[in-house]
Amino acid sequence: MPPAATGTVDRVSMAWLRCALAGMVTLALLALLSVEPAAGALPSRDGAGTASAGTAPVGVRLPVEPTEQSVSPSPSPSPSPSPSPSASPSAVKRTATKPPATGAPAPPPPPPPANTASRLHAIPTATRQLIVVTTSGYGTSVATVETFNKVNGAWQPAFGAMSGRIGSKGFSGNHVEGDLTTPTGVYSIGATMYGIDPNPGVRYGYHQLLSDDYWDENPASPTYNTFVHGANPGAGSEALWQISPQYNYFAVINYNTPAVPADPPRGSAIFLHVVNVAGTAGCVALPQADLVRVLDWLDPAASPRIVMTPSQDLGRY
User: Fold this and answer.
1) What does the alpha-carbon distance between residue 156 and residue 147 come to, in Å, rounded to a whole number?
2) Engineered SS bond to 223: which of 118, 120, 172, 216, CB 3.0-4.6 Å?
3) Given this model, what pLDDT does residue 63 score?
4) Which CA distances in Å does 300 have to 196, 205, 246?
5) At 314, is the secondary structure helix, strand, or coil?
């Protein structure tokens, strides 16, 4: 080969060698940066024959130098968020806890059971003790005697029902002197109780009977239907200290007191006393033990009343 041709070949070989070395360096850098070379890019020669970045000759591929867009930076670790400080127990607002429900609310208490006194409508509002004397009708002397206390506005039994007796001819709505009936109605209790025997412990005034103690039953007397001590008022007045067991203890039922003049006279000496086998002359009678219990229970501060009527007429009072 001629020398000129040989020099040309040497220059070309050196240029290609430089390009090859430049390519190898570029590939090494790309490998270090973990970036693959872009397809279709090769080094080219400039007019001075030195390798430069540019468009490669036809058939030669040059690697593309990495740029900011072609390099994916390693993601920086996200800072771990600091845990929020937990509120101290003292800072926690304590709220009252309700006890767990144990079931449905308790039902209201049932109304008191109906009884004899609950049928009454005309009892004074101040009255807190009640004696109710009833029979099965007007013509019988066999009676039931019941006692009641007013509790929270309702009548509650004080004692159990007791068997008693009234006038031998039963109840009457028009009682007169000596007719052997018991007057119907609602009455208070006299301020003084009496008895042949000593005071059993009553809360009322008590008079132990003496000789010449009478109950005036003489309609013509100015002291008609009252207690008197002294001479016999006459006309069937009772010698109280002599009548036993009926007057061992008794309370006065305030019927026709003070006495109202009438013709015929309206009657007198209606008592609550000890029973003596059969019907009475018009009083209400109980066995002595029951009577004493009732007399001791009665309290003048409770403004007691006694109701006397056949059962069918309770609604009238």
Assistant:
1) 9
2) 216
3) 45
4) 22, 10, 23
5) helix
pLDDT at 43: 43
Which CA distances in Å does 61 have to 67, 124, 141, 160? Answer: 18, 128, 143, 127
User: Are 161 and 257 within one domain?
Assistant: yes
Q: Examine the domain organization and report whether 43 and 132 are in the same domain.
A: no
- Mean pLDDT of all residues in 256-267: 95
Amino acid in the structure at residue 141: S
Q: 264-291 burial, b if ≥16 CB within 10 A, otherwise e?
A: ebbbbbbbbbbbeeebbbbbbbbebebb
pLDDT of 167 above 80 = yes
Asked if 124 and 228 sit in the same domain, the reply is yes
**Residue 20 DSSP label:** H
DSSP string, 211-247: TTEEE---TTSTTTTSEEESS---TT-EEGGG-TTTT
pLDDT of 236 > 50? The answer is yes
Query: Looking at residue 280, what DSSP letter applies?
Result: B
Provide the domain count of the chain.
2
Which residues on neighbouring strands pair with residue 81, listed in sequence order?
A: none
Question: Taking the model in full, what pTM does it have?
Answer: 0.66
At which of 37, 52, 67 does a domain end? Answer: 52
CB 300 within 8 A of CB 191: yes
Residue 26, domain extent: 3-52
C-alpha to C-alpha distance for 294 and 286, rounded to whole angstroms: 10
Asked whether the predicted pLDDT for residue 53 surpasses 80, the reply is: no
DSSP string, 45-76: E-TTS-EESSPPPTT---PPPP-TTT--PPPP
The alpha carbons of the chain give a radius of gyration, in whole angstroms, of 63
d(CA 243, CA 284): 15
